[in-house]
Amino acid sequence: MIKAVKLMIILAAAFLLFVVVSDYISDYKEQYENELTSTESNPGEEVTIKIPKNSSAKEVAEILKRNGLIKFEKAFVTRLQQSEYRGKLQSGEFKLRKGMNTLEMMEILCKEDEDSKIVDQLVIPEGYTVDMIGEACEEEGICDKQDFINVVKSVTSSDFEYLVDVPSGANVRYALEGYLFPATYDISKNTTAEDVVNMMLDAFKDYYTDEMNAVATEKGMNSFQVLTLASMIEREAKLESERPIIASVLNNRINSDMLLQIDSTVLYPKTNGMYDSGDPAIEDLSLDSPYNTYVYSGLPVGPICNPGLSCIKAVLNPEETDYLYYHVIDEKTGRHIFTETYEEHVETMKGKEDKIGGTDTNGDGIPDIEPGQTDYEEEE
After folding, report:
1. What is the pLDDT of residues 56-99, one digit of tens each?
2. By CB distance 3.0 to 4.6 Å, which of 64, 181, 210, 228 could disulfide with 203?
3. What pLDDT is attached to residue 3?
4. Can you point out the beta strands (E) in the chain?
């Protein structure tokens, strides 16, 4: 009798489970079929989504599901492939409604937004500063320079993880200086200052890889220090082949407790990041700025421009040399000559209207002083 009761209970439970599973499967099929074929449209909450450029149909379906607009990614992709909208999905920002059927969504997602069309390109050369990029944005009619700077100042490490490498309380002009990757960016009528900043920061994340960051860590540096060194190389070197050598010179001078004495570290604060003047005058070299490497030892307080990938790689893979000095020997190409001692440095400048003895030895208006003296010593 007891066995019979147990059997009946088991059978009843099995039947109940069968009913529940059957209902679930039936409901699942109905909902899936609805997204695959329904043409009904119901009221619902409006949702704004952003579809990145070159997104696949599957990636678009994932965005729709994540925003609660669909339940079945496969149903959306299948219907899209069978519809007139196949291959026509657009990128940009779209307003959809949760009560829409998937065909309605496709119609909107495939409608090209005139304001989202690429109408121009913003070219940011290597070595541009925040201020120079802001001016370029204003010249291109994207936004006011001050709007761009305001956005730059508003970004924090919670928005962009690499900014945790910027020392707390660092007396820098902009925490983002160095991190705005120089490249060519597509611009539409909708592009804002915030869009430009985000594109440049995203590009930095793409180009400054985890492997590169690991190399920096092995050398005892973080991204901020790498970019500070790279920014000086960017302003100093025209020839790509010389960048690892200049990186070596900077390392050697730091290791020898010598001032770096990079002209651009004077010009950056003097010109408010515009580099719109010639070489610094002798009196400029005493400018009291944490960027000025004629006054303060070691690295400047932060990057003095936004360097390109070549200069970043030069910092991570410098040449092994004993050079401590260099100066330009070909103004047209920017080619330098490198030397190990001050005496060699002076010797290589002969014939350049040298006036050794406390005045100009390289024709740039800045005196060369022997190591150990208290005045300024110019290596380029």
Report:
1. 999 999 999 999 999 999 999 999 999 999 998 988 888 999 98
2. 181
3. 64
4. 46-51, 92-97, 118-123, 184-188, 325-330, 335-339
Amino acid identity of residue 327, one-letter, is H
CB neighbours of 303 closer than 8 A, spacing ≥ 6?
177, 178, 224, 227, 228, 230, 231
Long-range CB contacts (within 8 A, 24+) of 43-49: 43/97, 43/99, 44/97, 44/98, 44/99, 44/100, 45/97, 45/98, 46/95, 46/96, 46/97, 47/95, 47/96, 47/97, 47/98, 48/93, 48/94, 48/95, 48/96, 49/93, 49/94, 49/96
Share of the chain above pLDDT 70, in %: 84
- 350: amino acid identity, one letter: K
Residue appearing with tokens 């890889």: 209
Is residue 204 within 8 A of residue 181, CB to CB? The reply is yes
Q: Which amino acid is at 43?
A: P
Q: Are strands 335-339 and 118-123 parallel, antiparallel or unpaired?
A: unpaired
Pairing verdict, β 325-330 and 184-188: unpaired
Residue 362 neighbours by CB under 8 Å, 6+ apart = 327, 328, 349, 352, 354, 368, 378, 380
Number of continuous H segments (helices) and E segments (strands) in the chain? 13, 6
Q: Three-state SS for 22?
A: helix
**pLDDT-derived band at 179, boundaries 50, 70, 90:** very high
Q: Are 292 and 266 in contact (CB under 8 A)?
A: yes
72 CA to centre of own chain: 35
Residue 344, token pair as written in the block: 């060699």
Burial of 311 (0-12, 13-18, 19+ CB in 10 A): buried
pLDDT of residue 28: 66
Longest dimension (CA), the chain: 119
Residue (of 253, 251, 248, 260) closest to 293 by Cα position = 260
For residue 360, what is the DSSP state?
B
At 132-149, the pLDDT tens digits run: 999 999 999 999 999 999
More confident residue, 215 or 38: 215
Structure tokens at 204: 């930095």
187 SS3 class: strand
